[in-house]
Amino acid sequence: MAASLLAEGTHVLHNVPRITDVSCMRELLGSMGVRTSWVGPTSLEIVVGAEVVPEAPYELVERFRASIVVMGPLVARCGRARALPGGDDFGPRPIDMHQRALEDLGVVFGDLARLHRRPRRPARRDPPAARVPIGRSDRERP
Q1: Which listed residue (21, 88, 89, 126) is catalytic?
Q2: What mean pLDDT value characterizes the chain?
Q3: Torsion-angle region of 79 (φ positive above 0: left; ψ -120 to 50: alpha; else: beta)
Q4: Which spans in the chain are helix H?
């Protein structure tokens, strides 16, 4: 659902469960100017207009952990986003890996979780040193 923020147009998702998190995400997307509606028992239509509000209101994200998943698409599309980390009572679930990934993409975290994309691309991290043979099975090796 969050990925639909990346592109203007009509997106239809199938096999969507009618659970609380989906209802909360529909409300969050609605606050950003996105329309959602059920078009079948498990099909959800998401209509994203030319303009998207790059802000996730805290009163919505405090109910579930959606702010972190909408940050990337909002920054990618709008160049900025504003969202405070939300949560639920399920227990601690760190978001540091999400924050590092966004930083690797050039996101700068500012006051009140206001995000901005840097104008330049960050340096790429070196890939892991693991070597995996491609195209041969273990039996074919000498």
Answers
A1: 88
A2: 76
A3: left
A4: 20-31, 58-61, 67-78, 96-104
Which string of b and e fits 28-47 if b means at least 16 CB within 10 Å?
Answer: bbeebebebeeeeeeebebb
- Count the helix, strand and coil residues of the chain and give each as a percent rounded to the nearest 5: 35, 20, 45
Residue 83 β-bridge partners: 56
Torsion sign over Cα 4, 81, 35, 20 = positive
Q: What does the pLDDT look like over 36-79, one tens digit per residue?
A: 999 999 999 999 999 999 988 888 877 776 677 888 898 889 88
Q: pLDDT-based confidence at 102, cuts 50/70/90?
A: confident
88 is catalytic: yes
